[in-house]
Amino acid sequence: MIKYIVFRTVLTAALIICGLAAQGQKYTWKTDTSGGYAYRYVTNDPARTRFYTLKNGLTVILSQNSKAPRIVFRMAVRAGSTSDPRTATGLAHYLEHLLFKGTDRFGTLNYAKEKPLLEKIQSLFENYRHTSDTTRRKQLYKQIDATSLEASSYSIAGEYDKIMEIIGSTTTNAYTSAEKTVYIEDLPSGAIDQFLELQGERFRAPVFRNFHTELEVVYEEKNRWLDDDRNQMYQKTLSGLFPTHNYGRQTTIGTIADLKNPSLVEIKKYYNRYYVPNNMAIIMAGDFNYDTLIEKINRNFAYMVARPLRPYSPAPEVPLTKPHTVNLYGPGNESLFVSYRGGAQNTRESLLLQLISRILSNGQAGLMDVGINQRQKMLGASASYTQLKDYGVFSLMGSPKEGQTLAEARQLLLEQIERLKNGDFDESLISAVVANEQVSELRSFENNEDRADNLVEAFTLNKAGEWDRMLATTDRMRKVTKQEIVLFARRFFLDNYVAVLKHNGERKTITKVAKPEITAIKTNPESVSAYARKVMDAPVRPAAAVFLDYRKDLSFTKAGIADVISVPNKENALFRMTYRFDFGSDNNRLLPYAAQYLAFLGTDKYSAEQIKRLFYNIACSYSINVGREKTVISIGGLQQNFDKAVTLLEHILSHCKINSAALSGLKSRILKGRENAKSNKGLIMSGLTSYAQFGPDNPFNYVLTGEQISQLKAAELTGILHRLTNYRHTITYYGPLKASLFTAAIARLHQLPDSFLSAPAKKRFEYTKTSRPQVYFANYPMVQTEMYWVRNMKAYDPRDAATITTFNNYFGDGMGSIVSQTIRESKALAYSTFAMIWAPDSKEKQTSMLAYVGTQADKMNGAISAMNSLLTTLPVSESAFERSKASIINGLKTSRITGDEIISAYLEDKKLGLTMDGRILKYAALRSLRLEDMVSYYKQNLSGKPYNYCILGAEKNVNGISLQNLGKVTRLTLEQIFGY
Fold first, then answer.
1. 716 and 778: one domain?
2. Which of 326, 330, 601, 855 has an alpha carbon within 20 to 30 A of 792's alpha carbon?
3. Which pTM does this prediction carry?
4. pLDDT, tens digit, for every residue of 401-439?
């Protein structure tokens, strides 16, 4: 997987008591010893992070947090695509894939017999790589394919995933970016011994087996990358900003030529060069004892030997002296990037650019938020800063509105820079940005994933591990003056940018490569290596399941005629409150438009711009989210500003005034956005699947026509907003106030009628009955072809939850599932594929089977055949079933629902007709669930049943797919799909 990460600052300390960080907080490195191990730490670090360096140079970074009996793990390597050889781009990313294949001890049935075959494959690929004659290359590939098939007789595909499933990891993954490769797990703390044993083995002597099928999987990932316009825009931006640095000279995923001519020799060299302990870090956040864990890590990784490093050291970039414009074409909507080259990590320049990005664009009161978005000068505009190690990328981004050229949109973006350079902003915006950044970090800080990811950034981006400076980022921002920003902007933002203008049109630069002839390799799913058996059979420290008791975990009160549900926040000084209505756009199609309109309305006391600034200045925010069946008004921020925030929200809802000019602009933007939606392949596929489930009259196209939007009346929309809280709604609260105090406060601030109005009747949609196969096709110019299998089943019964969850895990949800092992691992037909039963949120709705494959068009026939075979005959494995079942039980035992997630769980269960924690029923059913029960469910609902096929792809590419042989073909127009 490829990943680009936007740098996030880490929460500063002392937020819990007063809500804002104390000025002048001291972050100083100290050294201490515990359990026989020396470590470094930073004073006032709210994560209480310990930094160890083992004797072999391996960095270990630990942050203890015992909210749940789980641990988030990251293995970070300071090596990414910038370190790829120029003649073998994409190598770091491909290596990431191969490090899931096992070693000489696991992933193999007989390594002694497998090894000479793997060596032969390596030699054949070297010959293949250096051969240009087409006929000879085909001959070599046939030998590679035949030898790979023979070698697969001794391999156990996906054994790493199987072990992790037994251990109880819920997030087995990895990603590669420019400067790092990171391996990811989320495991029960009781399985730490087995986990560390496996990780130590994994990096001891990796074996790169099943090479040619994984190569084709990576190539399919490349195809997906090529189909994403924003990926292409970002890469063109990097190429323009960094003509010398590898940031711009080579992509993380590699070139087509390099991917099709790989070298196992180069991959092994890369591994030996960069995967050394003095270039790696183990990062863990969660439930553990520091002293015990560091001893276990040392025991399992002490074998590693440090080696001298020669990190990538590029020549400095020459300053850009004039604008560089790139015109890019693709099927997606028009958009543009205007980007500047920023400074190195943790420089003063990088700090100022982080701050400036928020001054320009923070979603509420930034110069672009107010100057462009609020005034509807473009369809949308924003700014961002991405920090890399050697340089940063500062970008202005936007989409033009109807009748606006990309050149005009670019000028509007650049005008915001001029406002910055002219000092056209209030200095108080700086302190408001800092306060909101701190609140944002506080909200996510108790999340172990965020802790670990921030520490990954600290390790991979900082040569000296400048954790103290990262912790102090917002304190340093607070000391920045308006004058410094203005002077810096005048010096930095010159005619030194790269503008990428993305036009809507045919992309003509993509190379189409025919699929290789690959014989499906053997996966040996029932086999288990002796090493894996030892790890899986080792005793695990048990964890007791902890379920919710809604009567004890929630407070149920009343504020006037409204029900109130609350949970105390004992961790910090933030609150989150909602008004929840059990109706949405299916009840009133005007409701989402009214919610959008509100953002542009003022009142008799404040303008719309003043309202945004008022909320931002008190570090609070609100939103209205209108779904099909529910509407939620959310508000949150610092508890000390609760009264101010709620009073302002109530004032806006009841006193918003008609603004005809704003409505006119909104109508134009909505219509332009709807047209842009027709060029979004993800939305087109969503429409296809909705059509397959419900027919021509479906939830996806239940929208206003263009003419109806043009006729929207301001008075009607504001009337909806004024009356909104007169309808029945439930108030939820998560915050520091006790339930009685909150109820008293909200009863005082939230005006309610004597009785609620009745909600409008809900639009009902009828599920289609799939009595015979149907094919729904939509034409879209893309490299891949994507396909969904859709079948409506029966009304959802919560008692089926255990069977459905186990089946999904067993059959098609995850890398170790049958679908992934067959279509991806064995046949190399796709990068992304899955198949799972979708369980709805209400027992009145039906369950559905959704299966998916995205692949090159010339592989689609094989993919269709493979998926149809699995949907007809279920491969049965008692051991795989037990793994899936054990994994889900383990997850239930070690998961914890806390905070306002308790409220969400209660409301979700209530909608399913449950009065208790739904996990209790699932847990009880899982313990008695048998393989025969799952197979019976499959036979009754899936096996041999007719399916609707939803296919999205380029018409010219699907000629080789015999669509009519699948079923009756209906070619849908965009108007049929979208309803306009």
1. no
2. 855
3. 0.93
4. 999 999 999 999 999 999 999 999 999 999 999 999 988
